[in-house]
Amino acid sequence: MADYDMGADLFTLTDEEGVEQTFELMDTYEDKDGNVYYALVPYYENPEEMVEADTELVILKSEDDGDEETLASIDDDDEYERIGKIFMDRLSEMFDDGEE
């Protein structure tokens, strides 16, 4: 992971083609096997851009190669579906609680 701003929960990630994009951390989840997953959405400095954008939740898995932690896409469809459902349920609960 490149940059992490503790105040705003922002990650600047570099993809395989060297393109950087900033994401806002929505949630993290650690499963019973110790795998850590991150739910992120693209970050926009201008709130209007965020409203207009077709924002999709990005789910990445933490991988530790000994030297540094990297975030990688989840290649296994079953794992992705399982973790995606967990995040959607958790995020739904977070936002539903805020409306009461």
Question: Can you offer a commentary on this structure?
Answer:
The structure is a single chain. The chain has helices spanning 47-52, 77-99, and strands at residues 3-5, 10-14, 20-30, 36-42, 58-64, 69-72. The longest helix is centred in the last third of the chain and has 23 residues, at 77-99. It has a six-stranded antiparallel β-sheet with strand order 1-2-3-4-5-6, with helices on one face. The chain contains two helices and six strands; from the N terminus they run E-E-E-E-H-E-E-H. With 100 residues, the chain is of the alpha+beta class. The protein has one domain. The termini are far apart. The mean pLDDT is 85. A hairpin with a 5-residue loop joins strand 2 (10-14) and strand 3.
Q: N- to C-terminal separation?
A: 36 Å
Strand content: 35-45%
Sheet bearing the most strands, described?
6 strands, antiparallel
User: What's the β-strand tally?
Assistant: 6
Q: Look at the helices and sheets and give the structural class.
A: alpha+beta
Q: What overall geometry do the principal axes of the alpha carbons give?
A: globular
Residue windows where pLDDT falls under 50 for at least 5 positions: none
Q: Over the alpha carbons, how many angstroms does the gyration radius reach?
A: 14 Å
Mean pLDDT across the residues is 85
* Helicity, as a percent range: 25-40%
The SSE order reads EEEEHEEH
Secondary structure topology:
Layout (H helix, E strand, L loop, with lengths): L2 E3 L4 E5 L5 E11 L5 E7 L4 H6 L5 E7 L4 E4 L4 H23 L1
Antiparallel strand pairs: 1-2, 2-3, 3-4, 4-5, 5-6
